[in-house]
Specification:
globular, FAD/NAD(P)-binding domain, 12 helices, FAD/NAD-bd_sf, RIFMO-like, FAD, Alpha-Beta Plaits, flavoprotein, 23 strands, alpha+beta, six-stranded mixed β-sheet, binds flavin-adenine dinucleotide, oxidoreductase, Glutaredoxin
C-alpha cells in the first residue's frame, strides 16, 4: 500500500489540497480536530483567479449556483459616491466577485472531495510528528482518546493561523499586529439604497465602514473601532456606527454574527521543511479587509498539488517541490504589503489626510487604467511567478504571456485528472517528437499557439513554464528536462 499524504486541517485550504490530490489519484488522508465544519461566514469573497482554479478542478458550477454575484465596489462618503470600480473589466472568463460564506465554501469543497472518494476524518487531532527521509511519522488522537500512528509520505499543515505544524517546526511567523480592532456583523438591512450586487466602503472622519452583500437583504458589516474590549459588540452599537458613518436611513436587524477581530499580518519565510509543507493561514495571515487570505491559501493548494502528484507518481524530479515556496512566498508577501497599505489607507485619522485621500481617490478612480490595475490585483489574475526556478525562455518577439505568467485566460478551462503540461505550438514533426519524448509530463494533445507561430509550455496550474520562437525548442526542452524524473528521462533523439 502506498503511503498517504496527510493533510492536517479541513478548512478551505486543506479541503482544496485534499481534493486536488485526490483528483490526481494521489492517496491522501485529511484530518480535522473539530467535530464539524465552521458555521461562521468568515471569508466571503472568492475572486476570479480562485474561480478559474475551481473551474479547472471541476467544481465551479456548484459555487456559481450557491454564491451571490457582486459586480462592483463603490467608495462613498455619506450619501455621495467618490468612485466605483466595475468587475467586468477583469480579464477573466469569470469577471465577477463571488460572495459566498466560508461555511458554504467548505461544504461545497467537502462534497467535491467526496465525489473524488475522499472524506474528512473529524475529531482527529495531530499531536506530534517526526520527519524522516522516507516519510513523516504522525501521531494523531481520535475522539475516543485512542492514538494512531500514520506513516505519511508528506505532511501538509493547513491547520490555520495557530498552526501546530508551524509551531512544531519552530518556524518564526514574522510580521505585525495592528493596534486597531475591527467590529464584524452579519445582519439584515432595510433602507440601504446601494444596489445589492455592489460592495460599499464608506469613509468617515471617525473611521471606515464596509458593507458587503451576503444574500438578499443580508449584509456583512466591518468597521474599525479602535481598541477592542472583551465583550462582542451588540446590535445597538453597530446601528449607531451605521448611522454615523453610513448613507443614512438604514435599519439593522436579525444579527446572525456579532464579533470583533484584530488584524495580524504575518508570514513564514519558507513554506517547506523537508517532507513537511505549510499552506494557507498556517503560512500567512492577512487583514480580512482585503478579502485575500482564503483565496491566497486555496491558490497555495492549487500550486502544490500538481507538483506533489508528479513527484509521488515518479514522473518529476523531487526538486520540483522546492519551487512551491519560491513561488508562493513572494505572492503572500506582496499581498500582505498591499492589503496592509489598503488597511492603513482605510484607517487614516488625520482630517487633512482624510480630505486628501477623498480628493485623490475621486481623481484617480476616474482613470480606467487605475481601475483596471486595482481590480487585476484584487482579482488575483495579476499573480505571476516571474522568478520561478521552473521558468525558461522569454516571450520577447512573441505575442503572448511570458514564463511565469498566467496563460490565455479566455480559453475554455479543461478539467483533467492527470497533472500534465500542455504544449501550444504549430503542428509539426518536431513538436510531435517532443510530446513523444516526455509522455509522462506532456499531454498528448498539441494545441494551437496564441499568436499562431511561437511555442508555449503551460503547467498543469495554467501558468507558462517556457516559451520559444518557432523551431527553437531549447527553452522548452530545458524546462522539461529540469522537471522530468531522472529515472524517467527520455533518450536523446
Ligand atoms: C472575519 C473574517 C473575514 C474574512 N474574510 C475573508 C475574505 O473575504 N476573503 C478571504 O480570502 N479571506 C478572508 N478571511 C480569511 C479566511 O477566513 C482564512 O484565510 C481562511 O479560513 C484560511 O483557511 P485555512 O484552511 O488556511 O485555515 P482555517 O480555516 O483556519 O482551517 C484550519 C483548520 O485546521 C484545523 N486544525 C488546527 N490544528 C489542528 C490539529 N492539530 N489537528 C487537526 N486539525 C487541526 C482547525 O480545526 C481548522 O478547521 C477572513 C477571516 C476572518 C476572520
Amino acid at each position: 500500500m502506498p503511503k498517504p499524504v496527510l493533510v492536517v486541517g479541513a478548512g478551505p485550504v486543506g479541503l482544496t489540497m485534499a481534493a486536488e490530490l485526490a483528483r490526481y489519484h494521489v492517496p491522501v488522508r485529511i484530518i480535522d480536530q473539530s467535530q464539524g465544519r465552521t458555521d461562521k461566514s468568515r471569508a466571503l469573497a472568492v475572486w476570479p483567479r480562485t474561480l478559474e482554479c475551481l473551474a479547472a478542478s471541476g467544481c465551479l458550477d456548484a459555487f456559481l449556483a450557491t454564491g451571490l454575484r457582486a459586480d462592483a465596489i463603490g467608495i462613498h462618503t455619506g450619501s455621495r459616491r467618490i468612485g466605483r470600480i466595475a468587475f467586468d473589466q477583469i480579464a477573466s472568463p469569470f469577471n465577477l466577485l463571488l460572495v459566498i460564506p466560508q461555511s458554504e465554501t467548505e461544504r461545497l469543497l467537502e462534497t467535491h472531495l467526496a465525489s473524488l472518494g475522499g472524506k474528512v476524518e473529524r475529531s482527529t487531532e495531530l499531536t506530534a510528528f517526526t520527519d524522516t527521509p522516507e516519510g513523516v511519522i504522525c501521531r494523531v488522537r481520535h475522539a475516543s482518546g485512542e492514538n494512531e500512528e500514520i506513516d505519511a509520505s508528506w505532511l501538509i499543515g493547513c491547520d490555520g493561523a495557530h498552526s501546530f505544524v508551524r509551531r512544531t517546526l519552530g518556524m518564526a511567523f514574522e510580521g505585525d499586529t495592528l493596534s486597531t480592532g475591527f467590529l464584524i456583523a452579519d445582519v439584515h438591512l432595510t433602507g440601504f439604497a446601494i444596489p445589492p450586487n455592489e460592495l460599499a466602503i464608506f469613509w468617515h472622519p471617525d473611521g471606515a465602514l464596509m458593507v458587503f452583500p451576503i444574500s438578499p437583504g443580508r449584509y456583512r458589516i466591518i468597521a474599525d473601532i479602535g481598541t477592542i474590549s472583551g465583550q462582542p459588540p451588540n446590535l445597538g452599537q453597530v446601528q449607531s456606527i451605521m448611522d454615523r458613518r453610513g448613507p443614512g436611513g438604514v435599519t439593522l436587524s436579525d444579527p446572525a454574527w456579532l464579533s470583533h477581530f484584530g488584524v495580524n499580518e504575518r508570514t513564514v519565510r519558507d513554506y517547506r521543511a523537508d517532507r513537511v509543507f505549510l499552506a494557507g493561514d498556517a503560512a500567512h495571515i492577512h487583514s480580512p479587509a482585503g478579502g485575500q487570505g482564503m483565496n491566497t491559501g486555496m491558490q497555495d493548494a492549487f500550486n502544490l498539488a500538481w507538483k506533489l502528484a508528479l513527484v509521488e507518481q515518479g514522473k518529476a524530479n523531487p526538486a520540483l517541490l522546492d519551487s512551491y515556496s519560491r513561488e508562493r512566498s513572494p505572492v503572500a508577501r506582496q499581498i500582505l504589503a498591499e492589503s496592509g497599505r489598503l488597511t492603513r489607507l482605510v484607517l487614516l485619522r488625520n482630517p487633512l489626510a482624510q480630505r486628501l485621500r477623498g480628493f485623490l481617490a475621486h481623481r484617480m478612480l476616474g482613470f480606467p487604467e487605475v481601475q483596471r490595475a486595482i481590480v487585476n490585483r484584487l482579482s488575483g489574475i495579476a499573480i505571476a511567478y516571474p522568478d520561478s526556478p521552473l521558468n525558461a525562455g522569454s516571450a520577447q518577439g512573441l505575442r503572448g504571456p511570458s514564463p511565469g505568467q498566467r496563460f490565455m485566460p479566455d480559453l475554455p478551462i479543461a478539467v483533467r485528472d492527470a497533472a500534465r503540461f500542455t504544449l501550444w505550438a504549430t503542428d509539426d514533426t518536431e513538436a510531435r517528437t517532443l510530446i513523444g519524448r516526455y509522455p509522462s509530463l506532456l499531454d498528448p494533445h498539441l494545441r494551437a499557439p496564441p499568436d499562431g507561430k511561437g511555442s508555449w509550455l503551460v503547467r498543469p496550474d495554467g501558468y507558462v513554464a517556457a516559451t520559444s520562437r518557432a523551431g527553437k525548442w531549447s527553452p522548452i526542452e530545458a524546462a522539461l528536462s529540469k522537471i522530468v524524473a531522472k529515472t524517467a528521462h527520455p533518450p536523446k533523439t
